[in-house]
TrEMBL record:
Root EC class: oxidoreductase
GO terms under biological process: pantothenate biosynthetic process
Species assigned in the record: Paenibacillus montaniterrae
Alphabetic keyword roster: NADP, Oxidoreductase, Pantothenate biosynthesis
The protein's Enzyme Commission number: 1.1.1.169
TM segment ranges: none
Gene Ontology MF, one: 2-dehydropantoate 2-reductase activity
Name of this chain's protein: 2-dehydropantoate 2-reductase
Lineage of the species this protein comes from: Bacteria, Bacillati, Bacillota, Bacilli, Bacillales
Membrane recorded as keyword: no
Amino acid sequence: MKFDIVGTGSIGLLFAVKLLLANYDVQLWSRTEEQAKLLEEQGIVFQSLGDGSKSLLKPACKAIGSESAEHDELREAADSRYMVLAVKQHHLNEQLLHELDKLARSGRYEAVVAMQNGVGHIAKLGSRLQLPVLTAVTSEAAKRLDQAIIAHAGQGKTWIGDELGRDRDNKHQKNIEEALQKAGFTAFMSKNIKEQVYYKLIGNAVINPLTALFNVSNGELPQSTTRRRLMEKLFAETKQVLLIEEPTIAAYRFEHILQLCSATADNTSSMRADILRGAETEVAYINGAVSAIAARHKLQAPLNESLVHMIEALHPDQKE
């Protein structure tokens, strides 16, 4: 089984190195020539969870768009090769979708595994790609220590499901589940992946924007009485909206958010990390998605809507 991992952020690199260490064939695709050249020349230094031992791995890495999908080396028939899409939602622009479509049409892949936060991307990918598009939801934590240094920051779980119904007999889900388990991940197939998507969406909608706004770690977020009260109100609003579309999340409690903060106490949320490095965040696809779902059902989600504006005001293109 072979993997092409599109996206060289922390999660993309984490899954790449763990699959490499399990002796899978892995090809990396970066969004920039600069990053591709760096990883090709220096490789990836991986710091494992627990003992902190380090490994140097040197997978092939190309910049997406730099090689035509018609190039001879991309013309191979799909030999249990999967594309793992590990870019952020706002990177799924028309240009990238065009390049992904070219790769998919080359006959190189059996299926695509999408690992984005938020909602809406599976429908977008499904409308452009004719392959099975699987949904992956992960709570694994990874930290980028440098451009080519990645640390496994926390053990989590990964669920794989088929929202679009294109995976006949669950063949590809089983293959991905088996590969991830061999790579040391705790992975499961999910009969209702939307439930896992919404569980993660609630956690992201509460923790990510507030840690970014207050510039605190996940563990520090609930330590302030004022912040905790805001967390509870944001949780209640978000859950009320999402319950309409996925009743199975009724069992999710605010205590689960607190447990998540505790389990990832030292972690910097991805949204906070983006703000600290002056990058665009995924707030439009997380809190913005909650607001959009609320509007679709004629509900109000003022806290989520306000957080979208506040976080977007911190984006680099909004600074004066």
